[in-house]
Design goal:
This protein is 49% helix and 23% strand. The protein is built from 24 helices and 27 strands. The strands form 6 sheets. Strands 25-26-24-23-21-27 form a 6-stranded mixed sheet. A 5-stranded antiparallel sheet has the order 2-1-5-4-3. The protein has a 5-stranded antiparallel sheet with strand order 7-6-10-9-8. Helix 22 runs antiparallel to helix 23. It starts with a helix and ends with a strand. The chain binds adenosine-5'-diphosphate (ADP). Adenosine-5'-diphosphate (ADP) binds next to helix 22 and helix 23.
Length: 887
């Protein structure tokens, strides 16, 4: 409130003050009056009620004495004369209600007992006033009067008073406002005028305006002061304006100067950038050298040319970059006497190690006669130098080639005429210059080849392509024509026109003749022969091949080799052929394989084909020789059939031998048993001849039994065979020696053996093998004590065993016979035995895929050899594998 009042204008503040004064003073005056009126009203009513109570008390004393209630009621009824009293009551001294009065329109009655009020004083409640007054008689209380008065007329009075006060307030407010407006004109008018003037001056800047003085009071003084202040401000402003104008002038001059400088600076920058960009982008290397040869600056082109970063190049000695470190010193020395150096060639090392040929132009920059730096312009001439070098080398090579080649080098003009001397031609043909000049050289070409040469020449000149022809040229030294391969290429001018032909002539006579010999050899070969190129095309066939396949050679030449193959292999054959050629290029030799060919009629021909690759100048060729193996296959088939037949019959025979020997034993045992019984029982009853016959029969039966047993042992080699298993061979050997224990003791024989390896064998059969061989070696001993040694050594993929003795030996003519069944060289009387032991040995060795044979010197001893495959021998350590022993 106070804040909004502070913001209000003076005028409105005045109005507010008047309003506030009225608003506070009027209610205060009204409230004071109201309090006074109320207290007057209450005093008046209390007095009236006291008088009434006293009157009633006085009138009731006698009735109270006599307790005349009617009289009391009548006395009270007198209250009706006072319209304000609405109820009344009389009580005895004991507080009993003796009589009561109630105005007819009132709803208040006297209570049954006197109420608890302050005696003799009125008590005011809303619209009501009550009083209790004791009745005194002769100093004693005779009873109590109770009165109730209606005070509602006070409320009406109050309402009227308030209405009057409100009207008064409104009127005072209107008057106050009007008065304040009047006052405002008088007091705030000049101030508001002054404020408006200030606002106007502030807004429009009309400094000449002045306030009008209307009185000499404080406002008049204020107006004077204000006008003085305005005068002061006008003066200050004028001075300020003058100063500002001056300042503006100065600023404008300064701005113009700054703009001019900026323009000049921009111009400078632009031309410097242009220069920098020109230098940077110039396709010429630039650098400045300090007098001591240090690079002080270099442009981008130069850095990029050598591949250095600025920090790797600038600040370093230039000599470090030149291939010849003296080059820079040399350049600087030359510049001592002259200010420019043109076309100095050097070679600079790039960052990647490569060298660049450069040409350097230098100019010296001096200040006050003192050398400040040398400006060097570098041009890269590497490409030019290389091209020059290439050209030089190529010329040199050409010259060397021409000098070194065994070929004839020639050149003709565009129409094939020789216009310059050809030294190599002269040397080859033995011709002098006049005899081959122009077109005369053609006379040296073999008569039969001239037409072909001419045709090739015409084709080459028409197409402007390579000229190539195989012709025979006269060769002076051998005194005959020799085959030559002539080749020439056209040399063209820029417009494409041919101005000369350059060519060589290669002597291919030897090759040609070798080819012819080769063809003759192929033609006369006993087999069908064919040669194909890398693409599988037939290039050569002989007469036998024509016969074998039923084609004429013209039908085959140039055709794919697959023409001669059955359709089912045609698809896969090119791949096989490719593999073969690749293998040959990798150094593989010839290859022989069986395959099928296809006769012209469609019939398949079984072939054995031997292929070999021929590396020639014209590429790789495959030469195949073919044999029709129809007959061989048929023979092989027959042999296979026979072998099978033989094996079957062998099996049957073995079976038969086994069954026969086994089944024969039974009747034989019975027979010999019977004969022996006969001998025992009838020996004394028969004559000597009969006894002799019986003895013969018994010994015959026993021998036959022994023979059958041997036969059975022989057949069991295959029928009772056990599977092969790895076995250290000393085990079966030692078992054999154990079995021969008695014989060894009896003869006092010594058996020694080498350490024996491990092999995959049937150990039982190996025991038998050793036992038979060592047994024989001891059995067939001479007069000296028998000595046997078993040795072994590795021979290729097999072990070779030898059982050597110092016995009687064997006559050479019988040495192969002894391995047959029942073959022996001595009578049974001299050496016991049935002649089956070695046959069993052979069967055992052969079952082990080995071989057995014997060598002997009669009277000195024999050696029995046998082999066993070593393939399955375990690769154990030698010390573990071999042991040694003696028996
Ligand atoms: P057997 O020993 O029963 O006669 P073999 O088949 O073992 O039958 O031998 C056949 C024959 O070979 C022998 O009878 C003997 O004449 C000869 N023979 C075998 N081994 C030796 C040997 N170590 N020295 C001399 N002769 C031998």
């Amino acid at each position: 409130m106070s804040r909004s009042l502070r913001r209000a204008s003076i005028r409105w503040r005045l109005v507010a003050i008047v309003f506030l004064v009225l608003a506070v003073s009027l209610p205060l005056a009204g409230a004071g009056m109201l309090l006074y009126e109320r207290s007057a009203f209450e005093r008046d009513l209390e007095r009236r009620m006291t008088v009434l109570a006293d009157v009633i008390g006085d009138n009731s004393v006698a009735a109270l004495m006599f307790n005349d209630l009617q009289a009391l009621a009548d006395t009270l009824a007198g209250l009706r004369n006072d319209p304000r009293i609405v109820a009344g009551g009389l009580y005895g001294t004991d507080g009993r209600l003796l009589a009561q009065y109630q105005r007819s329109d009132a709803d208040i009655a006297a209570p049954a007992e006197p109420p608890a009020l302050r005696p003799n004083r009125a008590t005011f409640a809303r619209r009501m006033a009550s009083m209790l007054r004791p009745i005194e008689h002769k100093g004693k209380t005779a009873g109590i009067v109770y009165l109730v008065a209606d005070t509602s007329d006070w409320t009406e009075l109050l309402t009227r008073f308030l209405a009057m006060l409100g009207a008064l307030f409104g009127a005072a407010l209107v008057v106050g406002v009007l008065v304040s407006i009047g006052l405002q004109r008088l007091v705030t008018g000049p101030i508001a005028e002054l404020a408006a003037l200030m606002r106007r001056i502030g807004r429009t800047g009309e400094a000449q305006l002045r306030a009008v003085k209307r009185s000499d009071d404080e406002i008049g003084v204020l107006v004077d002061g204000f006008n003085d202040m305005l005068d002061e401000i006008a003066r200050g402003r004028a001075e300020l304006e003058a100063a500002r104008a001056e300042l503006q002038e100065r600023v404008a001059a300064l701005d113009a100067e700054v703009a001019e400088r900026r323009r000049a600076q921009a111009e400078l920058h632009r031309s410097r950038d242009q220069l920098q960009s020109f230098i940077d982008n110039a396709h010429v290397g630039l650098n400045w050298l300090a007098p001591d040869g240090t690079i002080v600056w270099a442009n981008r082109y130069e850095l990029e040319l050598y591949g250095y970063r600025p920090e790797e190049y600038i600040g370093r000695a230039a000599a470090a970059f030149h291939e010849d470190p003296r080059a820079v010193a040399d350049m600087l020395a030359r510049l001592e006497h002259s200010d420019v150096l043109d076309g100095y060639e050097s070679r600079v090392r790039c960052k990647d190690g490569s060298l660049r040929d450069v040409i350097i132009n230098c100019s010296v920059h001096r200040e006050n006669g003192r050398l400040v730096h040398v400006r060097c312009f570098t041009r890269d001439i590497t490409a030019r130098k290389r091209a020059e070098e290439r050209l030089r080398r190529s010329e040199e090579r050409y010259r060397t080639l021409v000098a070194a080649t065994t070929s004839v080098v020639f050149g003709t003009n565009a129409v094939g005429r020789v216009t310059e001397r050809l030294p190599s031609w002269e040397e080859y043909t033995g011709q002098a210059w006049p005899s081959y000049t122009g077109a005369r050289w053609a006379r040296m070409v073999h008569r039969d080849d001239r037409r072909r040469l001419w045709a090739a020449w015409v084709r080459a000149t028409r197409e402007g392509s390579l000229f190539e022809a195989e012709v025979r040229i006269w060769h002076a030294r051998s005194g005959r024509h020799r085959y030559c391969l002539a080749r020439a290429v056209p040399q063209r001018r820029a417009d494409g026109a041919v101005y000369e032909w350059l060519g060589t002539m290669l002597d291919i006579d030897d090759r040609k003749r070798a080819e012819e010999q080769f063809r003759t050899a192929i033609e006369s070969a006993p087999n069908a022969m064919i040669m194909i190129d890398e693409m599988g095309r037939v290039v050569l066939v002989n007469r036998r091949l024509e016969t074998l396949f039923g084609y004429r050679r013209e039908e085959l030449l140039g055709r794919p080799i697959e023409t001669l193959l059955p359709e089912r292999v045609r698809q896969v054959h090119p791949a096989l052929r490719g593999e073969f050629l690749l293998a040959c290029q990798d150094g593989a030799g010839a290859e022989v394989r069986e395959m099928s060919g296809r006769h012209r009629s469609g019939r398949e021909i079984p072939l054995e084909v031997g292929c070999s690759a021929l590396q020639t100048e014209e590429g790789v060729f495959c030469l195949a020789s073919m044999i029709d193996i129809t007959e061989r296959l048929r023979a092989e088939e027959e042999r296979r059939r026979y072998t099978e037949e033989l094996q079957r019959s062998n099996r049957e025979l073995g079976q038969f031998a086994y069954v026969a020997s086994h089944d024969l034993q039974e009747p034989l045992r019975a027979m010999s048993g019977c004969v022996q019984l006969l001998a025992q029982r009838y020996r004394d009853k028969l004559d000597a001849r009969a006894n002799e016959l019986i003895d013969h029969t018994v010994s015959g039966a026993l021998r036959m039994q022994a023979l059958i047993n041997d036969l059975l042992a022989y057949s069991r080699v295959s029928t009772r065979a056990r599977p092969f298993e790895p076995c250290r061979l000393e085990a079966p050997l030692q078992q054999a020696l154990a079995n021969l224990e008695a014989l060894l003791k009896e003869t006092g024989a010594t058996v020694t053996y080498d350490p024996l390896p491990t092999a995959t064998v049937d150990a039982t059969q190996l025991t038998q093998l050793f036992q038979n061989l060592i047994g024989n070696a001891i059995k067939f001993h001479a007069d000296r004590p028998p000595r046997v040694h078993v040795s072994v050594r590795r021979r290729g993929t097999a072990y070779l065993f030898a059982v050597e003795d110092n016995g009687i030996g064997i006559e050479p003519q019988y040495i192969d016979r002894i391995f047959g069944v029942f073959q022996r060289l001595h009578t049974r009387g001299k050496y016991p035995g049935n002649g089956i032991g070695l046959a069993i040995c052979r069967k055992i060795v052969e079952r082990h895929h080995g071989r057995i044979w014997a060598e002997s010197v009669l009277g000195k001893g024999s050696t029995f050899y046998f082999t066993l495959p070593a393939g399955t021998v375990h690769n154990e350590e030698h010390s573990e594998l071999y042991g040694s022993g003696q028996h």
